[in-house]
Amino acid sequence: MEKRVRVRFAPSPTGGLHMGGVRTALFNYLFAKRHKGDFILRIEDTDQTRFVEGAEEYIINALKWCGIPPNEGVGFGGGRHAPYRQSERKELGIYKKYADRLIESGHAYYAFDTSEELDEMRKRLEAAKVVAPQYNAVTRQNMRNSLTLPEDEVKRLLESGNPYVVRLKVPRNEEIRFHDIIRGWVVVNSAQVDDKVLLKSDGMPTYHLAHIVDDIEMEISHAVRGEEWLPSAPAHILIYKYLGLENEMPKLAHLPLILNPDGHGKISKREARFPVFPLSWKDPREATPYLGYKEAGYYPEAFVNILALLGWNPGNNEEIFSVDELAERFDFERVHKSGAKFDPEKAKWFNQQYLRKKSDEELANAFEPILKDKGFSAEKPFLMAFCRLVKEKVQFVHEFWDQGKYVFIAPDSYDEKVLSKKWKENSKEVFTSLMNAFSSLEKWEVAAITSCFHEAEAAKGKIDMQVLRVLITGVAGGPQLFDMLELIGKAAVVDRMNKALAKLQ
């Protein structure tokens, strides 16, 4: 029988959840949704020294804002697999039980080395020109562990409460093979793998043991994570093998990195040009707060759409997808092996596409607080009409003001570049005539304004529409001119033209 799809997103609460982590969560979510499976949030807090206050709540809130909520796990409800925090699971003795099995079978051992002894070992290896010093099948022979010490000495150290860690006993020269859904078969020689610490001296498991135990006990079908974990995968394969769980281990998928816009290096929170967090984040250990995509004005649907196409493609040129549409198409076979460059300008384009899909009322509701902050107010129908006009020119709601503030404020300066080039000797006469025609209009609507303008042109000759725009708004560009005039209103348009013509005398 086919195993039920159960995937997990398992971040550590060591800081804000950046966009790379959100993409990992998203791909897990889409895969589970497509296969009607389970998406679990597990908190991997085995490294208590790096725990950051507020990070767990941030992770939960970020997933909710993105619209990709787990159906099981921390903050989302439990089941028979609870608890979902590794620190709480450790108290149940789950991890030690598996570590003891590995020791009893001879595939793990106790190591009593002090930090000073480990430093000395690294210095010796560095002096011997070893490129990557590590605790492995060779170096462990000269260290203080249960493989080198007499049995009675090991027993004495354990009974006396001497600090120790449990390490994986990696074979010296063995081929380790495993299949990755994205990368195919991966082959590594065990000489490249160090003896990973499985249990720390405080009894807390490391990631290497804990995630394997949890994936087995939580019946995870697919383990999806970033490619930074690929070098550790051979050790994880050995642990499954030594526990006799090779047939129960989840299928692996290592996602490509999200790269900086120049393609060099993993995307970093230090990037000042664009946000890297879904929500604004302030690390209590740092002075610098980081702006989030939400606070920068992005829609969650746009943010998710952006991330989905970083390293995955739908097989055609389509780019705009709802979460449901993404789930219908998503599979790991279309995830790339190589890193995906993030394009901040393309991200803005995505947001613009979603902004244009919003109703005039939704946009008016979003813009109204911004308008009030500027000291203005307007009736909802007026705001809706304003948003309808301006939305084609912006990428974010907060840009509405800069794009169309002249609707609310009469200009006190006029685009000199346009006027110096297009203002003619008879311009004042022509525009005065047009102003008078406008003031005589009974119905102030686009059709009537358009007809009035063309009638004035028939009588006076060609009237430059850009100059007309400048006289009324002060700027050279904007939305459809006659629609904008209708919105501003006849009295305001005539008054603005009158003042502008007087100033340009």
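The above is record 1. Record 2 follows with the same two-line structure.
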Amino acid sequence: MSKKQVLLEEYTMGNLELRNRIVMAPMTRSRADNPDCAPTDLIAKYYAQRASAGLIITEGSQISPMAVGYINTPGIYSKAQVEGWTKVTRAVHERGGKIFLQLWHVGRMSHPDFHNGELPLSASALNPNSQSFTPEGFKDTVAPKAMTLDEIKETITDYGRAAKNAMAAGMDGVEIHASNGYLLHQFFSPTSNIRTDAYGGSIENRARILFEVIREVTRHVPENQTGVRLNPSLHGVFGMTLNEETIPTFDYIVRRLNHYDLAYLHLSEPFTDVANIPGAEPHIAERYRPLYQGTLMINSNFDQDKGNRVIEAGLADLIAYGKLFIANPDLVERFTLNVPLAEWDEATFYTPGPKGYTDYPVCNEKGSL
């Protein structure tokens, strides 16, 4: 690839200057293996190694004890967690990087084992018929508790408190995780939301919670330092299925997001082949680039060439890379030098310790390891 790469161009996002258009996508790594579920020195090292990305988006960080649904994931609701994330932001900023924290609530994808036997919360009491990764291993999910109006209000407040904590930890911004079958996504879909109150029924009602969360989060974080993540064509994952209302729901959400001066909208291309699924949209960037007027970030199995081509075609402004960043902490440098990429070790994605986490080699300025 001899011509100039648009992936390597600087980009102005809100009030931040990104040194390139390569984003490290949020990825659960399950290394917060301590009673506080707080980021550690090892986690700080992991993110610092990848600070040459234009932007890092952290792994999902639970906004409250009720938001947790996986072992050893870091939170953002306690003093110890804020102190842990402060180590991370300091390490990233020392290397000139930018970092957003992803605000996470898994909703019904949790398990009573995380909540002293109490049911997890969701829009409606519908079992996703999936599995939750508990301290005792994978267990079948259960039917959650349908949230009361007070519990919805409390959860929205939790998002705001978590956003405030993220900024106290030195984050450059936050991403609201409204994607991948987790809590906010569960409200959007009529297959997981059968409420009959102000948060159910119509598209506007099912989307209501997202805009209330945005309003609460932006009390503590400027709009142009707040991102939103969506996955419109998620199908067959975490109990989420597509129907004729799915894409119209996301069309409504994306159009309404134009009313905000957000840092970005982060969209995922389909995780699975949805070409023959009724109600699906196989080409997310192509559909939503014309609908969204702000900075658009896209992800899902991009390589170097495809990332450059998507930006050149005007379909996105930023490209988020996941697994490539696991195995290549120096992904930006490897793209710059056009050198081969390392392979990731999937067996170590969620295991404790540095193996498969901070021990991947980096190349020098000549492209040699």
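The longest helix spans residues 149-168.
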